[in-house]
Every structure is written in C-alpha cells, then in structure tokens.
Write a structure and sequence with these properties.
- The complex is a heterodimer of chains A (172) and B (426).
- Chain A is mainly α and 172 residues long.
- Chain A contains 5 helices and no strands.
- In chain A, helix 1 crosses helix 3.
- Chain A is globular.
- Chain B has a single domain (5-414), classed as Thiolase/Chalcone synthase (Peroxisomal Thiolase, Chain A, domain 1).
- Chain B has 12 helices and 17 strands.
- Chain B has helices spanning 20-28, 75-91, 114-125, 137-141, 145-154, 169-182, 200-208, 248-253, 282-295, 315-327, 340-343, 350-364; strands at 5-14, 17-18, 34-36, 39-40, 43-44, 52-54, 103-109, 160-163, 188-195, 239-247, 260-269, 304-306, 335-337, 366-367, 390-391, 396-403, 407-414.
- In chain B, a hairpin with a 2-residue loop joins strand 4 and strand 5.
- Classes of the chains: A mainly alpha (172), B alpha+beta (426).
- The A-B interface holds A 39-41, 44, 48, 59-61, 63, 118, 123, 125-126, 143, 150-153, 155-157, 159, 161-163, 165-172 and B 41-44, 49, 55-62, 70-75, 78, 115-116, 119, 122-123, 125-127, 129, 132, 134-136, 140, 196, 208-210, 214-215, 232-233, 272-276.
Chain lengths: 172, 426
Amino acid sequence: MTAESAILTQIRLALAQHLKRDVSRVLPEHLLREDLGLDSLSTLELLFKLEEAFDLEIPNEDLPRLSTVASVATYIEQRLAAGDGHVPDAPGALAALASKAVAAAGPRPAAPRPAPPAPRPAPAPRSTTGSKPPAAKPSAAKPAAARRATAPKPAASKGARPAAKAKARHRA
Amino acid sequence: MNKRAVITGLGVVSPIGIGAKTFWHNALEGRSGVTALTRLEELPADGYRCQVAAQVADFDSGQLPPAIHAERFDRYAQFALVAAQEAVDDAGLDLGREDPRRVGVIVGAGMGGMLIGEEEFAKVYRAMRPNRVHPNFIPMITLNSASGIIAITLGAKGPNLTISTACSSSAHAIGQALVAIRTGQADVVVTGGADASLLPLTFAGFCALRALSTSYNATPERASRPFDRARDGFVMGEGAGMLVLESLAHAKRRRARIYAEVAGYGATSEAYHMVMPKEDGTEMASTMALALQDAGLAPAQVDYVNAHATATPVGDPVEVMAIRRVFRRRADRVLVNATKSLIGHTLGAAGALGAIATALAIEHGVVHPTVNYDDPDPACELPGISRQAQERPVRAAVLNAFGFGSNNAAVVLRGLPEAAPRRRAG
C-alpha cells in the first residue's frame, strides 16, 4: 500500500470510529455533510484533528475544497507533497485521535507549536448521525508541554498585577 | 394594561467613537472602525488566522471616578459603565429625584470578563500555585460585573440582571427591560450591553470556529462586508451601547426627550443548532413576526430593518430570506442596513448598538450606510441595502439579533408624535 492510500484509509477509519459505523460505510466519494451527516462543528473538529495529526494549518480559504472523504485525503497528500507537515509517527495515530476526548499530545520534535489545550469533551452535536462523545476521559492533559517563548506570565505575581493589566488595556 | 416604554437616553463606546453623537456622525459618514490587529493584550497577533478587528481607540478608564476602582473591572464592564453614565446624563435622569427601587439595570454580556481568566490560568495550571490567584479573579470574571457596578454607581435598587444569549444578549436585555416596565416592575431601566473580547485565547476561539474574516488582513477596512458577494466571515468588535428605557408616563411627567418607543419584542429559540441558523429563514422570520405582533404593527408600517448581518457566508442569506418571508412584497421597499459593516460584531453590545442606530434613524429620518456593499450577493440582495446613507422618515423599525445557542431576538422601535421633531443629523 502506498503512503497516499494509507492516508485515505486512515481518514476513513477515523471517520468510521467517530461516526460509530463500519469503515465499509465510509466511502471516498461520500460528502462529509450530506452523506456522513457531519454538521459544521463536527467538520471543524475533524479538521482540527487532521491539523494535529499531520502538523498542518489549514487556512479558511482551503475549507471549500474539503467536501468529500477523498478530497480531504487528496488535500492532505498535496500538502505533504509540498513539504508541509508530516505523516503521524504511529500507524494508528490518526484513528486514535478520532475519539472526541482528544489526548493532549506532547510537542512533536520538529513542531515549534504550543501543545494542545486541556480539552473539554465537546457537547454532543444535534446532527442526524446521533453520535455521542465516547466516555474516554482526557488523558494527561497537564501543562508540561512547551509554550511559545512569548508566553509572559511569571508564576509568583503580586496582587498589583491585575491593576497593571487593566491599565494596559487602555490602548492609549 | 401594559405600560408603554420609551428610550430617553443613549450612551456609546464604540470602534467608531466614544459618545452617541460621535458614533452617529461617523456612522452616517460610513466610517469603518475596523483596523489591523497587531496585538492581543501582550501577545503579538501575527500567529492568528484573522488579524483585523474593530477596536475602541482612546478609551480612558481614568475618566471613571476613583471610588469605583476601575482596575477591579474588566474592560467590558468599564465600557458599560461609561456608556451607562452617558445614557443617564443624556436622559437628564437624576437618581436623587427618583425612587431608586423603581430604577433597574438589565445589561447584556456575551463573553464578559475573560481577560483575568486567561491571565490567571498559568498560576494554577503551570506554576501549581493556586494561592497566588488574585482576589479580584472572581469579581472580574463574573458575568454580572457590569450590571452590578452600574447599579452601584447609579444607586439603582430595582431589578439588576445580566442577560447572556451570545450575539443577541443586548437585544434580549432591551426586550427584558421592556417587559420589566410593561409589568410595572420598574419605571426606569438602564439597559443595553457590552463586550471586550479581543483577548489572546478568546479571540483564538473565534478564529477556531472559522467564523472570522481572514481574507482581508492587508486591508482591514474592507473586511466587514455584510451582504457582499466577497464576504468571508465576521470581524470582531468591542464596545458598549446603553439606553435609558422608561415608562411613557414617567418620561412625560419629567418632560424627558423621547427618541423612540420600544414597542415590541420577540424572543425565540430555533431549537436547531448551536451555531448554524435554520437555513430556510423560517425561524428568524418567526422571531420578527412575533415582535411585530407584540408591537401591534403590520409589516406595511415598518420602514427599516437594522439587520443582524454579521457577514458570514451562511447567515446573511438566511436573514434576507426571513425578511422576505415577513415583509413579502414590501421587502423590496423597506430600508435595511448592517451596523456591523462599520463596527464589526461587538457580541454583547451588538443588539444595543444596533438599537441605538435604529433609534437615531427614527429621530433623524436617515439610515446609516452599509459599507463594503460593493458587489451584492444575489443570495442576500435587497433594494433597501445601500452603501450610502438613506434619508426617509422612519415610522417604525425592526432590530434583529441572532445568537449562538440557536437564540433569536427581534425588537420593534416606533417613533412617537410626542417625540422631538425630526431634524438633520449634526
């Protein structure tokens, strides 16, 4: 199996797990919204997981291209071919991220991005798929991961600090 | 029998000016308050998908009385308080001459005092030092801080409420103020709403919803484009709009100047989806119809719709469908504009600032422009939308506000013969 097909398979598996349906019922030509019943928030959540798994940023203007399962895979493949992001290290990494309660992964060696925030389980969307968040709890959502160097807050602040912050918001 | 409620004072803190007069002058001129967003508090904005916002410039919290300890209040509450003071002054309302228990405060807030939450987070989650959290954390973050400090500052002892329905918060607040006056619970209600959510995490949250405009980062004043074919999402704004609402009898007794009557209010849930409206516009239409019915007005008597119109690809067409459904043939004649084209989406302040633009339209007989309406999208086009200010007597108007959480509000304003004679804007 080529790497490209592996990505399509991974995406189908992730969707199948998320939708609690057999992967044989998640076809490349399926439209995310009309066929798989993903509403706008579920689609955003899927894209977020893809960004995390492949270490990509998907800009707003690319969203209209992501209409079918196959087009999502094609998009990822094109981005990877252009040198953006990278394939997840573990083979089942994308499928594992299909769970609603996203595990806060530590920073990847090559990725200078902040760690994902401690997630809340998303409220069950009122989509027709009737899918519900799995019972899994967020694991190890501790803030030990790297932050951007610009994160400014010192730990032991004195009481006067909120006053200084309020003044800073004057934007004079 | 229900009492009638009228608007007697206005107060504004907005991205196109502080003060109702400045706001209105700039609105009529079609001035955009959208600028480049270079920082969010202490953090640079260059990592964000969206780098434009409608920001309030030159806000000086030093103008607040020292006794208030402005530093204990989030910017959103400071906005609300300044706007409330202006509205009360504008109304010529002297609390010393009122029964304070008959004066209420009902304020809309969407996100409220998030900043301190973002800032103090690190002390607990990073440094594991929970006892270093600042004592002002709770007072600053609690959503009713604005309504609280306004009531305290004014000495208002009537009902003191905060209404939070996301983007429709202050429209609902005005509606609930109307209810309070109609039912005799208060004679005067200081109402409206505020938000100041241009904060590192909160702004990132809106970016993550993919709801903000990202294609106009290099030309900020072009980013907020309600009804335009090239719209690509909303622009976040900040600000406050406050109004003094009082019973008609009370206003007449003290010879207050009346801007307009708040004649009707519709509040519904679409019971549909947390962030998407029902695509056929039937739910929005039902809210507007309910407000008109409450006002005892027919669509034929309405001259103007101040639209919610955030400039999202999906939302604008749905609202236009709803307007067509309610107004039928008159939909092609009614004036429509989008205040958000000038000041972005101010969340908790949006309904109130729209109401203020509507009240002033009724008073002055002119509807402010919808800027960036360069290439009308056929899916949401109406003859009544214009890039120019439109002069026409406005007998009655509908204000729309549709919030996340499937939450809709519509408020009907009507001019009164007893009101000040119409005059040209200054």
